[in-house]
Design goal:
three-stranded mixed sheet, 5 strands, alpha+beta, 6 helices, two-stranded antiparallel sheet
């Protein structure tokens, strides 16, 4: 299967119809139908059956969807990474600090750092005293 066929298959499977998949992909219904038909022809088996006017995934479609879902999870991760890279100068820093530093040294260091890198956010956690839970410390 080519990537476009996987994308169309995923959309039809997820949205439950060719028209909903077409809307989600921003293409025409005939385009989705044609791509799905080519995918089925190349695979040699049907991915969906028509039952009572609805598309029902075949057992083979369920098996392929498991793999396609993994692919789309990775694509989502790739898109997230690309978005983060495009926002150069931003980011998020998590710090685990002992309470004595969290009250004096760290706030000063964070303030100095944020003057140069204002789009960076911080999450600071300090271990609790005698069994207390971690608590976030507000930046700035």
């Amino acid at each position: 299967m080519r990537f476009r066929q996987i994308e169309v298959f995923h959309a039809v499977y997820t949205h439950g119809s060719i028209s909903a998949a077409a809307r989600a992909l921003g293409v025409s219904q005939p385009s989705v139908s044609k791509t799905l038909r080519h995918a089925e022809d190349g695979l040699g088996f049907a991915l969906f059956q028509l039952a009572r006017g609805r598309l029902v995934p075949t057992d083979e479609a369920h098996a392929l969807m498991h793999e396609a879902g993994d692919i789309f999870d990775r694509i989502t991760s790739l898109q997230h990474t690309a978005r983060n890279l495009s926002q150069a100068g931003g980011g998020h820093i998590r710090l685990g600090i002992v309470p004595s530093l969290a009250l004096d040294v760290v706030p000063q260091a964070m303030a100095q750092f944020r003057r140069e890198w204002p789009r960076v956010t911080f999450e600071v956690r300090t271990p609790g005293i005698k069994g207390a839970t971690d608590r976030p410390v507000a930046p700035d």
